[in-house]
Amino acid sequence: MSKYLHMLVAWITRAHDMIMTLNDNFETNFSDKELHFLVIGAVGLMLIMLVYPVFKLLANKNRVLAITWIYVLTVLIVLTFAIEIGQRITGTGSMDFGDVVAGMGGFFAVTAALVVLHLAGWTVKALFQLGRGRRHSPRSVKARGWQ
Prior knowledge:
This protein has helices at about 1-25, 30-60, 65-90, 95-130, 140-145.
């Protein structure tokens, strides 16, 4: 994971250098704040164009939990990095990428446990209904709200 983070930082550094070179070649140089405004605005627009179709597809297939999970994952990544940066600034701990990995591992483990419990509950309900003589396909179980 650390390897990928270093690759990402290297890519961002190259992009930054390219943008600064382009900026130096214009007659009107943009200030640092103007560059941040333009670049983050453009990156945000690209992300919207990439994420919107995925979320729309998930929403149309009634996969709200998947959308929620992606959102929570994003917030947790930002939060774990903010905690590590805060530790570095305040001196209350060491800034360690391993802590970020451990925190995200905890999220994945808890999510996996939730999925297992959810599937076990669904299976018990389906078996209970089968034992009572009712046969429901997964589609009919979902249609009745027993998901």
